[in-house]
Amino acid sequence: MIEVQGLTKDYGSKRAVDNVTFTVQPGRVTGFLGPNGAGKSTTMRMIMGLDTPSSGTATVGGKRLAQHAAPLGVAAALLEAKGVHKSRSARNHLRVIAATHGISTKRVDEVIELTGLGSVARKRVGGFSLGMGQRLGIAAALLGDPQTLILDEPVNGLDPEGVLWVRNLSRHLASEGRTVFLSSHLMSEMAQTAHHLIVIGRGRILADASIEDVLASTEEQVSLVRTDDVEALLRTLAADGVRCTVTAPNTLEVLGLPPREIAAAALEARILIYELTPRSSSLEDAYMELTKAEVEYVSGGIA
Ligand SMILES: Nc1ncnc2c1ncn2[C@@H]1O[C@H](COP(=O)(O)OP(=O)(O)OP(=O)(O)O)[C@@H](O)[C@H]1O
Fold it and tell me: What is stated as this protein's family in its record (predicted)?
């Protein structure tokens, strides 16, 4: 279990993580979701003891990671791509890490098997694709058979097969009772992998709930409207402060206004609409809603 209490990190005058408190439970995959620059990597580095908090604490299994006698068996992480000797084979790379931590070569072979690196284990790491490199990073993280696994953007740049592999592995490790904490800036990815979500924006926690609860928390209605005069309808609704977006030719997505009121507004403005479809909000909508302030902040160019 990971416990984070009042965790804050300042880089000079920049507050990267702002008084963050949460718990990551074992036996399920917890997604750490937030836009770029939200503070995910910084939080993960502090949990791993690679960055010192300005205030607050982060513990794994009840203690700071460094206080454990054999930290590699407690928690391991895939953070940014680490420096590896490019001329070494994958197996040798893992053997070197194993040797420095008193881990057997039998375990090296197990993690090679587990991460599907068998056919390339003797090849030079320098020639590895991004996907193979990610697998190698995860293999290294698994060497100590850790109870807690922290993966920072593990699917970044992976092909669909690699994405599926990370998803299945994360779920498998959680089903063994491990704590699995993985970050992403993509809700679509998290929705299919995580059981529980912690959403962060500008260093603060915006949501900490099951996938189902995050969905239920967005009450905003979304409707799809088709009309020949999309510009006129956009103007009419926008004049009333309704948020809408043109999503395709002749198609408007309207947020927060019940379908009946959309139809009434169109009728009053004498705009013909020929389709009005209420859409249940998706996790993607929920995420957009949660991180709206963050996105506006960035696109406003203030950051
Ligand atoms: N070493 C550092 N020095 C100064 N500022 C930093 C440092 N590391 C991170 N930051 C800043 O802290 C904020 C949070 O960064 P962080 O990398 O934790 O975000 P993130 O959510 O992981 O984003 P990304 O997905 O882009 O990696 C950003 O504004 C970033 O520029």
Answer: Belongs to the ABC transporter superfamily.
Ligand 1 atom nearest to 303, measured from its CA? 29
ipTM exceeding the 0.90 mark: yes
Give Cα 241 to chain centroid, integer Å: 32
Question: Does 184 contact ligand 1 (Cβ within 6 A)?
Answer: no
Listed by start position, the domains of the chain span 2-211, 221-280
Cα distance between residue 233 and residue 61, in whole Å: 56
DSSP 186: -
**CATH class (in words) of the domain with range 2-211:** alpha beta
User: Half-sphere exposure (CA, 13 Å, Cβ side) for 268?
Assistant: 9
What ligand 1 atom has the least distance to the C-alpha of 12? 4
Rounded to whole angstroms, the Cα distance separating 179 from 47 reads 13
With vertex at residue 43, the alpha carbon angle to CA 37 and CA 45, rounded to the nearest 5 degrees, is: 105
pLDDT by residue (tens digit) across 161-207? Answer: 888 889 999 999 999 999 999 998 887 778 889 999 999 988 999 88
Q: Which of 40, 189, 291, 297 for a ligand 1 pocket mutation test, highest count of atoms within 8 Å of Cβ?
A: 40
Residue 14 CB less than 6 A away from ligand 1: yes
Give the ligand 1 atom nearest the CA of 9.
12
Q: Distance from CA of residue 157 to its chain's centroid?
A: 14
Q: Domain spanning 221-280: which CATH class is it, in words?
A: alpha beta
